Amino acid sequence: MWANKPGIVEVDVSRARDEELPAVIRIYRQHNGDCGGVGCGNTFVARNESLGVVGAVTVKQIQPGWVSLRTMGVEPELQRRGVGSQLLGKVIEEIKREGNRTITVDLDIHINGQKEFFSNFNFKKLDSDSMVLELK
User: Fold this and answer.
1) pTM for this structure?
2) Distances from the Cα of 55 to the Cα of 58, 68, 100, 117, angstroms
3) Which CATH architecture best describes the domain 12-134?
4) What region does 80 belong to: left with phi over 0, alpha with psi -120 to 50, or beta?
5) What is the C-alpha to C-alpha distance for residues 100 and 79, in angstroms, rounded to an integer?
6) Residue 5: its pLDDT value, please?
7) Of the candidates 134, 72, 64, the residue with the CA atom closest to the CA atom of residue 104
8) What mean pLDDT is reported for the chain?
9) pLDDT tens track for 25-49
10) I need a surface site. Which of 56, 62, 63, 104 has the fewest CB within 10 A?
11) Could you write out the DSSP letters of every residue in 3-70?
12) Domain spans of the chain?
């Protein structure tokens, strides 16, 4: 089903459409992620023209100006192919455009490399279980 060759998988990122929510939930379940709160208004998807929905992130407004990344996932076969980076980069841009200034993310101790991934986007350690990004 997935492209067999290594390399970057190009995606477009925007808010989820109703018909894409089952794919989002399937991806989150593959990662034992929280599917609660998934909806069109707060979930962004990464779509590839030939593969369809290949990744997603759901955000939650904590208070005005502050959002939290609740769940994020990429199709396992497509990890380390740029999907997550493209997805998170576009979501950060949209969150900032909407006037938010703080993004937090809770880390899952079972996911290796998660701290390094978010550090690449300038997230800083908030405490032992979470990271924060202050937008300017």
Assistant:
1) 0.92
2) 11, 17, 23, 15
3) 3-Layer(aba) Sandwich (3.40)
4) left
5) 28
6) 56
7) 134
8) 93
9) 999 999 888 898 999 999 999 999 9
10) 63
11) --S-S----EEEEPPGGGHHHHHHHHHHTT---TT--TTTEEEEEETTTEEEEEEEEEEEETTEEEEE
12) 12-134
> For the chain, how long is the longest CA-to-CA vector?
43
pLDDT tens string 49-62: 999 999 999 999 99
**C-alpha 94: how far from chain center:** 12
Tokens of 39: 């909806």
**Do strands 124-127 and 130-134 pair parallel, antiparallel, or not at all (unpaired)?**
antiparallel
How many residues in total does the chain contain?
A: 136
Token representation of residue 3: 């492209």
| Tens-digit pLDDT profile for residues 80-105 | 999 999 999 999 999 999 999 999 99
Assess contact for 80 and 96: CB atoms under 8 A.
no
